[in-house]
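FORM 7B: Structural annotation worksheet

SECTION A. Query
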Amino acid sequence: MKFEKFIKKLGGHGVIYTHNDVNWLASPSAMMRIPIGTKGVLSDSISEMPDGLKRFIDLSWKEEPCELTHAELPAGNSGIKDAIRFFETEQQHLSIGINNDSYTLLENGDVLSLFPEYSSDESKDIAKALIVKRVTDAQPEAEIVGFIFPATV
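SECTION B. Predicted structure
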């Protein structure tokens, strides 16, 4: 994920959360791990991460690999900036749509998966977030760098 682009997009209006001695920068549509050594990140506030967001990190082992399958425009006269990008698991039983601003945060080489959660209303698993991981020379095992939450249409 493109951390610098995320910071520019927020313009100091995000929230920094702390969980297990790791800092995360959050907006309504995404949450990114603040890279080690980063200094001077502006935000509206700094606080302990809410339990609902902690769950994404603590239960990320439940992930299911996914890939981009298609994009949709909400209306016939919509522009590309309005596109919703859909990611699905291999068996297509889980799907999530993210907005174009969130999609532009993804980088080539990011490892993507969906975070499933059981919905008692729908009696099935639904995708609650797109998990973004990165593999580097220094970190050969994929490490979570962020989460992107579903687009609201």
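SECTION C. Observations
Helices lie at 3-10, 51-58, 100-103. The first strand starts at residue 15 and ends at 19.

SECTION D. Sign-off
Analyst initials: ____
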